[in-house]
User: What shape does this take?
Amino acid sequence: MKILVLNCGSSSLKYQFLNMETEQVLATGLVQRIGMDDAIFEYKVPGGKEVKEVNSILDHTTAIKRMLAALTSPEYGVISDPSEINAVGHRVVHGGEAFSGSVMVNDEVKQTLRALFDLAPLHNPPNLTGILAAEDAIPGKPQVAVFDTAFHATMPRTSFLYALPYAMYKRHKVRRYGFHGTSHRYVSERAAALIDKPADQLKLITCHLGNGSSVAAVVGGKSVDTSMGFTPLEGLIMGTRSGDLDPGAIFYIMAREELSMSEMNSMLNKHSGMRGVSGISGDMRQIEEEMAKGEPRATETFEMAEYRLRKYIGAYAAAMNGVDAIIFTGGIGENSNLLRGAVCEHLTYLGVELDEGINNTRSKQERLISKPTSKVQVWVIPTNEELVIARDTKELVEQLGK
Amino acid sequence: MSVRIWGIVGTGQMGRGIAELVASKGFEVVMVGRTPTELEHARQCLDKALQHQIDHWAITDAEKRVILARITFTTDLTKLVEADFVLHAMLAEIEEDKQLFRTLDQICQKDVILASNTSTLSITEMAAATYRSDRVIGCHFVTPYTKTRVVEVVRGLKTANETVAEVMALVQQLDRTGVEVYESTGYVTTRLIVPLINEACAVLMEGVASAEDIDTAMRLGYEMARGPLETADRIGLETVLVMAERLWREYGELKYRPSPILRKLVRAGNVGAESGEGFFKYDPDGHRSKSGGAVR
Assistant: This one.
């Protein structure tokens, strides 16, 4: 079975095409600046041909058609006809309370997705646009939606409710949803397979650290808490997002700076986090570079981000009454030995013993970076959200056939 | 039909404000001005306005660059052949407007909607100058363009229902609420704000209260974002004067007769926030100066 995985942003489209018999990636790519005359189309066959073109691509349907043309190109394509695509899996950011797992897309699902626009105004509308465009460009193929929030649907009420008037939850569904679910799910499943302990008792803390970052507490394969909440703004210090702060500060700033709601929202999402504190960059690599040069603001920013992350790990160890393994993933989690080292250095009370040598060795592999004697294992597991989406799609399509 | 490129004729406060709004919502803009100097001035003003947004944390440097890159500046009206929707946004007399619509009708592709931002001139009259009167409509944005969330969508006599529906949808894409109105000088917003400004001028002239206090009373008393006199300064007193004169001419009612103080300020060149002084004083960034300057 061959499955196409799509991740649609408002002006971008990320795709991966997989052969699910072998779970091998046949082709990947990215379309940027959709809607413009100078849209960028990229296509790559792993270990093979790369294509990059600048062309007019005015909507997502055209972008998908362009991608299909590449996939079926006699010169560098990997299939001879679009009909060889068996199904399409879509990444959808917000599933609200309606979706606790992946679903086959039908009219009712699309209707519900529209109803969820208010909860994720930046992400869900382009996700639906992608679904409609794929239906248009590859008609008659099953489409599956895989939600970023779904893995956290198992959170108990004690972790997902906010201490607000209960009417806010009943009326507006204001609660914690959590994000990066597909990634937390993938790495926690991988860890369960790698760790020699019964999976149903395993207590894991998964740290997805990238442009946006979140931590999850996973017991027996189920998410019981996560640091992102109603929106992806809560929790850790991120590239440009503030993470946790006293809501009282927001009203004070709005009054003092005479800001509107949308300006305040933009400050917290785009001008804060590591970018805001350091004044240098929201990119951890650049922060680390400046830190190496002895720039004190970079050092302070790094330490703040590390401290916040460590607090969450401590909190989740307490929440689960113990932890068997800590897993790092995402761009920063997979590549920043400095951050992993700094976090683990202060977790000795949990019995964490880091193997400095392995931690400092760069690799793209899944790897145990704690010592054999460490009471808590520490892993680096590269995430693979596309594979999870493709697997879920395959499973639902197979059920359809039964 | 889906709109991707907006054509905007006019580089004044109106044209610039709407261009900034439209480009920030992801549309491309072709902005047509009369001279290169005028366009350069518009570009600088837009740059400044966006910088102001950055200072208010509303956008990032990268977003500013993207927004500016979406706007092209030209003196060549025929460039509007590329546009999917054309908005005329400058203060002019009806004869000039009719001439412009006649020209636009020849340049623009045949199903393109031609819209005017006027609040006081006749859409029907402009439409009559074209061969597409069903595709001509009024689309009245209210200052400050990047903040105000309403657009009056105005039917001329022959405007087609589909045209109205398309423009209502387009307005929604800008995160604005469309209010449907029938052609009538001043529609809702202008017809109601002009008498309020005029009456505020009368209160000022009679010495009942200072400009500052008139605005404070109305701001706090009726939860307005700004008082009537600052509102007038923000619209531009020249524009307010023209609006009042046109309402007066149309309806013949004294309540619309422009207040003498309005005329006096315009004659003195104190035309509001744009010029640095109107009823109040403003710094080059358009902020109210903290001390003094208010007309007494």
